[in-house]
Amino acid sequence: MADTATTTPAAAAASAANASTDAPPFQLGKPRFQQTSFYGRFRHFLDIIDPRTLFVTERRLREAVQLLEDYKHGTLRPGVTNEQLWSAQKIKQAILHPDTNEKIFMPFRMSGYIPFGTPIVVGLLLPNQTLASTVFWQWLNQSHNACVNYANRNATKPSPASKFIQGYLGAVISAVSIAVGLNVLVQKANKFTPATRLLVQRFVPFPAVASANICNVVLMRYGELEEGIDVLDGDGNLVGSSRIAARHALLETALTRVVLPMPILVLPPIVMSMLEKTALLQARPRLLLPVQSLVCLAAFGLALPLAISLFPQMSEIETSQLEPEIARATNSRTVVYNKGL
């Protein structure tokens, strides 16, 4: 077995580096881009939300997983480049849950969030909405968000279906209540001109969605606060289960969910209020919906990677900040946990 050194992951990575100078040396399970900077996380999450991964075939997924397994066990075939390895890992991370290793249903993947979520955003921002349409779009939006949150949750601990239902109902009720309440207040505001009332109504979805997003995350992942989430040392070994780390994970996720709808639900109304005054759209009102859809798509495409780049998915925390039993269980100064998306 004297020749086995040539097939170790380190040797394979070195060989790949020689074959592909454009890509950095491959590291299994590690992000391609540095996660210590916002720009590095932004580039990383651009890979995560790449909608092209929605069209990856089952055969291509199996090949990607097998390639990573070969790398892990030192049996990588000669000629495999860093770029091929990074591409395989991108496919796996986009489709399979990092904790359960199971496929995430396509509409609930982060790579499907923009394609499947944009029609909902367009519906939320439609002018002159009735009570029924307001309720419908808020319900549909929170239903989609609830499923995305659940599909991308930290799954190191089992979560009963009752928690999902509780979070879902709480988010829907809060979103619908706030949206309907604000719309009623706007309608009763006698000081507003019709044009001003229409403009203000367009901004109603943001506070409704932002507050409901917080409710959604907290209620759906409340079990993590009670039981804690797994924390790992630098070598990936389980140190223990921490409720303090769970609080950090939920706070970071909740902040992300507040920032995310800002550009999506604030920028399009501003842009559309200006575009609607142009001669082109005034002469062709049928173009209003397609133009608004494009504006929403652009805002969504910008907002999602910016928002989820605020914090690393695998967040780091000092052991001194955690429970004493966690600090005693490891010599590592810091540990990491899966924040979830």
TrEMBL record:
Residues 1-24 have a biased composition (Low complexity). The keyword DNA damage does not apply. The chain crosses the membrane at residues 167-186, 198-219, 258-275, 287-311. Residues 1-28 are annotated as: Disordered. This is Sidoreflexin. Belongs to the sideroflexin family. The keyword Transmembrane applies. The gene is SFXN5. It is found in: Mitochondrion membrane. PANTHER family: SIDEROFLEXIN, SIDEROFLEXIN-5. InterPro entries: Mtc (IPR004686). Its main location: mitochondrion. GO terms for cellular component: mitochondrial inner membrane. GO terms for molecular function: citrate transmembrane transporter activity; monoatomic ion transmembrane transporter activity. Keywords: Amino-acid transport, Membrane, Mitochondrion, Transmembrane, Transmembrane helix, Transport.
